[in-house]
Amino acid sequence: MIAARLPLATQETNLFSQTWAFLTDPENWSGPQGFPARIAEHLGYSALALAISLVIAVPIGLYIGHTRNGENLVTMLAGALRALPTLGLATLFVLLSGLGLMPFVWALVILAAPPLITSTYAGIANVNPALTDASRALGMTEWQVLTKVEIPNGLAVMMGGLRSAVLQIVATTTIVAIINLGGLGRYIFDGIASNDFAMVLAGGVMVSLLAIVLDLVLVAITRFSVSPGLRQSGPKRIRVETKASA
Fold first, then answer.
1. What is the mean pLDDT of residues 199-212?
2. Least confident segment among 154-158, 217-221, 236-240
3. Which pLDDT band holds residue 36 (cuts at 50, 70, 90)?
4. Whole-structure pTM over 0.70, yes or no?
5. Angle 115-120-121 (CA atoms, 0-180°, nearest 5)?
6. What is the mean pLDDT of the segment spanning 221-225?
7. Which one is predicted more confidently, 68 or 229?
8. What's the chain look like in SS3?
9. What's the mean pLDDT in 118-145?
10. pLDDT-based confidence at 212, cuts 50/70/90?
């Protein structure tokens, strides 16, 4: 039993050492095929998909959260979209429109839109009704209620959906390498094609590190953009203050 396990352990050790050597090789950190260039490509594809997703999803979430119109339909639709396989969607879009970047971008948009819609809707809908009622009593318009009361109070929940969408997009953008585009997925697919599993693992490590760094950046943005009072037990503080004012 022990003798049978030794070769496997040796292979794993060799794979990790080869991956480390690949990651630390100076040649892989320069040129059009180096990590900086691939990271820039990966971020470019991801940013394009995220921008389109935000333009589509956030207004829908704001409208539904503010008016409560169509919330059941959108909730069901968002759940259905989450179940769709991204690679399958990309293949369908390629068959419909041909090879290129945009079929994959639209597949990523469908992946990212549901968490953006649901988090935006939830953030707005869960704002304490006493705040919105008081705002209307002060003479605010519906637009002012949305922009000055509901969005600031729901921003923490909305940012949670943004973080989820960013992580999903960054992790899945690797599929664009299927059609010989760039990005960090290039290392994964080229490694599989050449049986270079150290390259495959290195590509996966870089995608994971990129996702972690972006998530930390979004956490910092959330920390500085959301009011400290709303980060510290917002609903409980509101109930206490409402009761005291009553």
1. 95
2. 236-240
3. very high
4. yes
5. 100
6. 86
7. 68
8. CHHHHHHHHHHHHHHHHHHHHHHHCHHHHCCCCCHHHHHHHHHHHHHHHHHHHHHHHHHHHHHHHHHCCCHHHHHHHHHHHHCCCHHHHHHHHHHHHCCCHHHHHHHHHHHHHHHHHHHHHHHHHCCCHHHHHHHHHCCCCHHHHHHHHHHHHHHHHHHHHHHHHHHHHHHHHHHHHHHCCCCCHHHHHHHHHCCCHHHHHHHHHHHHHHHHHHHHHHHHHHHHHCCHHHHCCHHHHHHHHHHHHC
9. 90
10. very high
- Cβ atoms 114, 79 nearer than 8 A: yes
CA dihedral 55, 147, 137, 142 (to 10 degrees): -30
Are residues 110 and 135 in contact, defined by beta-carbon separation less than 8 angstroms? no
From 39, 30, 33, 31, select the one nearest 213 (Cα to Cα). 39
What is the residue type of 26?
P
Sequence letter at residue 151: I
